[in-house]
Amino acid sequence: MTDRLADIETRIATTRQLSQVVGAIRSIAAARARASRARLGAVRAHADILGEAIGRALAVLPAGEAPTATNGARHGHVVVAFCAEQGFAGGFSGAVLDAAAHTTSPPGWRRDLFVVGDRGVLAAQERGLTVAWSTAMILHDDQATLLAERIADALYRRLNDGSIARVTIVHAVPDGASGPAVAVRRLLPFDYGRFPPRTDAVAPLTTLPPPLLLARLAEEHVFAELCETVVLSHAAENDARVRAMTAAKEKVSDTLDELRATARRLRQEAITGEIVELATSALRGG
């Protein structure tokens, strides 16, 4: 009885420590998610300014001259999956990879999977998926621009050498609900149709030919979209971690309650046993 009670009390102490660790992970994840949401406004403002510039540049494009979307081969498609960098995020990476697996490519096209996030690479390997390129996901928001540059460089290298003609990005978005919502968007070829020509605006002063200006603005907008995707995915990953840690803390709390109840019962049994033993001894002595 004494040995069992000591074991239960040891488990109670260990479970309390585990509860503290889970709570700390949840707090850190919540803080990171809030920081990512706060940064979204600036990232989107950057993209909006570029969108307006593209509309003005389209307005000065010579009549009958269409902007060039992308160069390269006609048979390469890259799917970029933004997954988790760290653990304790539930099925976050799995949901993104499942959505990436269901993206379609034209018949006969080669398809390559790019994975952002070390946990995503492990999840892809568990699913038997071949990862053509990978990189780590950010841990802090101030790393977002560097990661976007790294991804853009990898994509444009393949575009410039003619090995791909299409890029699709797959990422989770923070929803604060019961699970990650996954978005699938075409990144390239660049869709100039999203930006109507600004014929109502004053013609801009330019030093570059309109086609080259548009190409440069499109590249910058792609970078802005990648920055936004990185920040959104980082917020969503930490939202998923908050949910996972909240569920874990509830389970730990339930376990702790059960252990405490068991410890109380064992103490009561030990006290009752001692009382019975004392009463029996007193009767024998009498």
Structural features, described:
The structure is a single chain. With 286 residues, the protein is an alpha/beta fold. It is 59% helix and 12% strand. It has five helices and five strands. Strands 3-2-1-4-5 form a five-stranded mixed sheet, sandwiched between helices. Helix 3 links the parallel strand 2 (110-116) and strand 3 (133-135). Helix 1 runs antiparallel to helix 5 and helix 4 packs across helix 5 (210-285). The longest helix is centred in the last third of the chain and has 76 residues, at 210-285. The protein is elongated and about 115 Å long. The two termini are 29 Å apart.
List the helices and strands and how they pair.
Blueprint: H1 2-59, E1 76-82, H2 92-101, E2 110-116, H3 118-126, E3 133-135, H4 144-160, E4 166-173, E5 181-188, H5 210-285
Parallel strand pairs: 1-2, 1-4, 2-3
Antiparallel strand pairs: 4-5
Helix pairs in contact: 1-5, 4-5
Distance between the amino and carboxyl termini? 29 Å
Major sheet: order of its strands?
3-2-1-4-5
**Rg from alpha-carbon coordinates:** 29 Å
The major sheet is characterized as: 5 strands, mixed
Low-confidence stretches: none
Share of residues in strands = 5-15%
Q: Mean pLDDT score, rounded?
A: 87
How many H/I helices?
Answer: 5
Q: Provide the helix percentage.
A: 55-70%
H/E element order:
HEHEHEHEEH
Shape designation:
elongated
Helix-and-strand structural type:
alpha/beta
Q: How many strands in all?
A: 5
